[in-house]
Amino acid sequence: MEKKIINLGIFGFGCVGQGLYEVLNRTKGINARIKKICIKDPSKPRSIDSSYFTTDKNEILQDPTIDVVVELINDTEAAFEIVSTALRNGKAVVSASKRMIAENLPALYQLQVDNKVPFLYEGSSCASIPIIRNLEEYYDNDLLNAVEGICNGSTNYILTKIFEENLSFETALQQAQDKGFAETDPTLDIEGYDPKFKIVILLLHAFGTFVKPEEVFNFGIHHLNDFDIQFAKQRNCTIKLIGNCRRQNGSVFAYVLPHLIKEHNLLSDVDNEYNGILLESAFTDKQFFVGKGAGGTATGSAVLSDISALLYNYRYEYKKIKQANQPAFTNDVQLKIYLRYKNPEHVELSEFYSISEKYESPTWRYIVGVINLEKLKEADWLTNKDVNILVLE
Fold first, then answer.
1. Residues tagged active-site
2. 103 CB neighbour count, 10 Å cutoff
3. How confident is the model at residue 324 (pLDDT cuts 50, 70, 90)?
4. What is the rounded CA–CA span in Å between residue 340 and residue 286?
5. 225 Cβ neighbours under 8 A, 6+ residues apart
6. Hey, which bits of the chain come out as E strands?
7. What does pTM read for this prediction?
8. CA dihedral angle for residue 149, residue 153, residue 154, residue 160, rounded to 10 degrees
9. Is 90 exceeded by the pLDDT of residue 82?
10. Positions of E strands within 207-350
């Protein structure tokens, strides 16, 4: 992009949109200005001048003076329509909509190729951590073995408050909502859907593998109870919701599951709304990234970084897609897990390869055993609220 000043058309002025506005106005080194912001509800009180706002999407999409469309809305279908229209119109696009991107990755990749315009979305994956650009520019696919970590600030905040301040799940969740880290409907966060969308995106940039979100198993912290918390504390561990994608035997697998994390693990000290990502590669072993994973200015800063990159004609090259050895996706891997349940009829212990530990009391039971990830993904018994699982290191 040759212009010294970028004209922005923004869709959405919620938490991230306002965060972008704030960081843009506090940053002196980026030649970008907001020309128009498209919003749904014109009657809602806004913190900036009303002349910025419109309810007509075409004021942005059809305006030839707008260089970059910034998409920051919650409606997945509308977001995809906005992004695809903008790309077809030859406009560069920046987005932070992880669900929309994860559900439409092949189409979005092809739109970039066909229309020869960049689509950047660093803010969709780990908020302030520049993980996509690192995967694109630094890590060669032949060397990278795994990407795993905490990529949902809302659940990490909740778990931190539970373990460090002995708050109840409900109180910690309310605090996360009050601070703007969790939505009014927290389902996507606490059941692990939000980090799953991020893992789907990271799978593509880490390994060149397209995966549909429904292929990746996710189970969150919504069944966590006091018994599980005591189990962790008795072993000097904490619990973290982990997204994991890992190469194994020529394939790659991925999941989002709560993990029992030991003290020596780098992720054990990632607290509150922070994210932490571990990369494992053949020659550099482990490298660790940490940064804020929730909040308007954290994600807004990542969006602004993408806007700045467009000034230098940056775009994702998707090098790993073009390589001949990108791994196929599989769920055929074994995991060692803790399984807590109330009654034997609530679970299918016969699906475990092996069981190394058992416990029974009048209230709760648990086992530690090895099970196939595909079996977990298909397990109807995990819908029972009296059943919970944790992956063991």
1. 198
2. 19
3. confident
4. 32
5. 340, 388
6. 6-11, 32-38, 53-54, 68-71, 92-95, 119-120, 144-150, 217-218, 237-248, 251-262, 274-281, 285-292, 328-329, 334-341, 352-360, 365-372, 388-392
7. 0.95
8. 80
9. yes
10. 217-218, 237-248, 251-262, 274-281, 285-292, 328-329, 334-341
